[in-house]
Amino acid sequence: MKVLVSGGGTGGHIYPALALIRTIKKHDENSEFLYIGTENGLESKIVPNEQIPFKTINISGFRRKLSFENVKTIYRFLSGVKKATNYIKEFKPDVVIGTGGYVCGPVVYAAAKKGIPTIVHEQNSVPGLTNKFLSKYVDNIAISFEDSAKFFPKEKVVLTGNPRAQEVVQASKKEGKSKISCLGLSDKKKTVLVVGGSRGAKPINDAVLQTLNKWSSKEYQCLYVTGEVHFENIQKEIGESGKVENIVCVPYIHDMPLVLKEVDLIVARAGATTLAEITALGLPSILIPSPYVTNNHQEKNARSLVDVGAAKLILEKEMSAEKLMSEIDHILGNEGVWTKMREGALKIGKQDAGDELYHLIVKHLKQT
Ligand SMILES: CC(=O)N[C@H]1[C@@H](OP(=O)(O)OP(=O)(O)OC[C@H]2O[C@@H](n3ccc(=O)[nH]c3=O)[C@H](O)[C@@H]2O)O[C@H](CO)[C@@H](O)[C@@H]1O
Which of 22, 103, 250, 273 to mutate to test the pocket of ligand 1 (most atoms within 8 A of CB)? Predict the structure, then answer.
């Protein structure tokens, strides 16, 4: 089958797309793919490295307030539709999948208008503007949180979960162990992963920097991912080697599924793909949602974990180094607390989302 995939901007939209591509390849080794993203998004770095044919269109998002920028956006959308239509004519996909971000707007819209089966994947509990707009035209909306169903036409919604979560669950534990030691961490100590989403988060970095002198006395260690753009500044504080006793600091992790398999606790933003990964694995978490996202959707994402006891929530405005360390101590120092959080996470985690989405795609192919 020929599959056109589009999604971009941040890791939370790109990794589900890549996981889906790998799942389809596993089921159908003759499948062919085209990925449409933007030149500036993270996808332009990640996707070509995966040897997936990659093309771009130029697009930006709508401002919620009246603005001249929106006139430019409409113009970009229409030229995006034209460019996407040309890519579609050339590639002749059997199905088109959008995994979120502005870029999939014109691509999925162009495909739907040509009568090609289309599906969008929504990772969040509150959808963004692009998927809401596309929901009028697509055949199905595959969702990850039950809560998001109410925003879409009922008859089109299918709860599949997030395909990246299945990939993480299936990652090799043995390779995870060797990845952890390659990073310079001990396999004898429990590990806390600190990560501020795919781009890093300055407020989390600021809090972690204030904890540096507290780690040397701990029985556990920290893998601290700063985000590429923040790394240089953090290195100035931590030193060239990126190592303080019990802390290893890196800008980005490319094999995150392997790392997630081997950590005991995660301190993170509440991006939806991260949450799908950790609930599928049953990994306890301390979540500091970004308050700078549309409709405060990260806090809503986070609360669905907190409600089942899988996560502790710290609002950014209430975060401090002391609070962070005391929550980490509380969870890692109490086997019972940790186990309860793990059970809570597993209760809502979905481990087979890639296969579910694949079967949804195949159903459409049978109908055409
Ligand atoms: C600021 C913003 O708009 N964030 C949104 C963006 O977040 P963001 O891109 O940060 O998304 P997520 O936290 O959901 O996912 C990040 C992805 O990147 C991976 N990863 C992260 C760090 C790293 O070093 N290596 C790595 O591989 C994670 O394992 C995960 O697969 O998309 C999410 C999914 O739609 C939304 O819920 C978030 O609100």
Answer: 273
User: Which residue, among 156, 106, 159, has the nearest Cα to 130 in the 3D structure?
Assistant: 106
The pLDDT value recorded for residue 368 is 63
CATH, domain range 2-162+351-367: 3.40.50.2000
Domains 2-162+351-367 and 168-348 share a fold: yes
Joined together, the tokens standing for residue 53 give 């044919």
- What pLDDT band is residue 228 in, cutting at 50, 70 and 90? very high
ipTM over 0.90: yes
Q: What is the dihedral of CA 16, 193, 269, 358, to 10 degrees?
A: 10
Task: Quote the pTM value.
Answer: 0.94
Which pLDDT band, with edges at 50, 70 and 90, does 365 fall under?
Answer: confident
Strand order in the sheet with 95-98: 54-56, 32-37, 2-6, 95-98, 118-122, 140-143, 157-159
pLDDT at residue 62 tops 70: no
Q: Is 101's C-beta closer than 6 angstroms to any atom of ligand 1? A: no
